[in-house]
Amino acid sequence: MPCRPEKKLAALFGDNLEKLSLQAKGELKQVSKAIGETAYCQIIAALELGKRLANQREADLSEGYKIRNSSDTLAYCRQHFMRLAREGKQEEFHVVLLDEKHKVIKSEQVTVGLLSQCLAHPREVFKPAIRESAVSIILVHNHPNGDPTPSQDDKIITKDLKKAAETLGIRILDHIIVSKDKTLSLLEEKLL
Question: What's the pTM?
Answer without folding.
Answer: 0.68
